Amino acid sequence: MEAILNINGLSKRYGKVKALNNLSLQINRGDIYGILGPNGSGKTTTLGILLGVLNADSGSYSWNGKAPSKYDRKNIGSLIETPNFYPYLTARQNLSIVCKVKEVDESEVDSVLSIVDLINRADSKFKTFSLGMKQRLAIASALLGNPETLVLDEPTNGLDPQGIAEIRTIILDLAKEGKTIIMASHILDEVEKTCTHVAVLKLGNLLTYGPIQSVLNNQEQIVVASENLDGLKLTLSQIDGVSNIQQVGNKLSLMLATGKDSSYLNKSLFDKGIILSEISIQKPDLEANFLELIK
Amino acid sequence: MLDLLKIEYKKLIPYSTFWVIFGLFFLFTPIVFYGFGQVKIDAFPIDFATMYKFPNVWNNITYIASWFNLLIGMLLVILICNEFSFKTYRQQVIDGHSKADFIISKILLMSSFSLLSTLYLFIIGFFFGSFSGGEAPFLTDIKYLLIYFIQSLGYMSLGLIMAVLIRSSALSIILFICSIFVESIIRLLVPDNLAQFFPMKIISNLTPFPSPGGVQVANMNGVITEAISLNTTLIIAIIYIFSFWGISYVILTKKDIN
């Protein structure tokens, strides 16, 4: 796989506070990489360094294997925290300035405004926009020049549920086009629904990283119950593909190897003479996993 | 380079404060200039009889116009501080400008302001001179326009430093004006031969007090001191301007963009 971004030992301090401690990470082409962590974990600091607005104290990074320069940034679509535009300019005037900065043809302005559904408000001043519209304009701006890589920091911050859903749809559509997306978030649900990979930060330290399933262990759990709980427990341990048997109250939870499903389990138990009084599939409690991780 | 200036004017043309401040400058300069010739304050060492005539008109109009340099300087401070408060400086770095691009943009912008006001003074001066006549051809002493151009760059360059250092409009404007007065107080405390090299002194001396006896340089109290020649003043002023630009760039590169 081709690395889009290499981060080697980045560190950054604000006075006594260590905002980022020796972060190393590789992000490959086509990844949807979530940077997850509570507030103050160093997510925005990391993205700020990668986009040239913060100076790192030590360490280095490279986009596409080259030393950082303003020319990489022209080919990255970014949305960092709040949308930053001139309040007294219209949406179209604001984007036309971005086009000039990114050296992109101004004819793209109308098409990106259509993508985010702001074309009817193209000639309204930015200051008249609602928060959701401002955020959508920022996404439109990030799409100018059809960049291969997008860097998004808390893209749904402060939006209402409908706005969040809209932004998510846009991000997933972009992902389908094969773009590389790097997304910082403190909302687990958001990362889980959109990302392929995740890195978890806490107080500037990288706790863990990798494909999202392996990091957050989002395998489904099966919960079973029977009159004879001890017999059930014993029999379960003899069934092929069953792992992680745990007692929860008067029920048992377990995990099944990939390829095995609940009907396989039910049948195997029935064959061994165990009748289940209950069998249910439980979505994994990512929240609990995540909280466990950052404890 | 030209693209950077184009971006600046895309931001500027729809911005009403720009039109108001340049409007005030365009309106007040000829009115005040005309008014001075009518009121004829005795204490002013201006030869009112030849005030509007070539070649004196160039020295006089640039002297009057230099009072409004602070106005244009304030506009520049507001424009730069806007980039910080709207976070558009940060956004433009993220989108692919370097910190140097930012400083170069602002230098181009202030140069265009200086050029605009100098051209305007040329038109006003030419207008007054043509109606009043005079012994000299109109190009005589037109160097005052060039000197005015440098002076107005000088004030704006000081504004640039204040803006990148402080980043808030109101505070930067206050410090921009205060620094000029504070310097003049400090100058009273140091020997004259040192005081005359202070940056604001040098820059304000570029449009010298016009007097019937020719070009003489007077200090704040009107006492004529041993003057540095206008050419030397010009060279020192240019050195100051380049240093202000350099210092502003260093301030920007050292600071994180929040």
What does this structure look like?
The complex is a heterodimer of chains A (295) and B (258). Chain A is α/β, with parallel strands linked by helices and 295 residues long. Chain A folds into 2 domains: 3-216, P-loop containing nucleotide triphosphate hydrolases (Rossmann fold, 3-Layer(aba) Sandwich); 221-293, Alpha-Beta Plaits. Helix content of chain A is 35%, strand content 29%. Chain A contains 11 helices and 13 strands. Chain A has helices at 43-50, 70-74, 91-102, 108-115, 131-143, 161-176, 188-194, 212-216, 229-238, 262-271, 286-293; strands at residues 3-14, 17-28, 32-36, 58-63, 76-79, 149-153, 180-185, 197-202, 205-211, 221-225, 242-248, 251-256, 278-282. In chain A, the strands form 3 sheets. Chain A has a 6-stranded mixed sheet with strand order 5-6-7-3-8-9, with helices on both faces. A 4-stranded antiparallel sheet of chain A has the order 11-12-10-13, with helices on one face. In chain A, helix 6 links the parallel strand 6 and strand 7. The longest helix of chain A is centred in the middle third of the chain and has 16 residues, at 161-176. The relative contact order of chain A is 0.14. By secondary structure, chain B is an all-alpha fold. Chain B has one domain. Chain B is built from 11 helices and 2 strands. Chain B has helices spanning 2-12, 16-39, 56-66, 69-85, 88-95, 99-132, 143-166, 169-189, 192-195, 199-204, 230-254, and strands at 210-211, 214-215. In chain B, strands 1-2 form a two-stranded antiparallel ribbon. In chain B, a hairpin with a 2-residue loop joins strand 1 and strand 2 (214-215). Residues 213-225 of chain B have low confidence and may be disordered. Chains A and B meet through helix 2 and helix 3 of A and helix 1 and helix 5 of B.
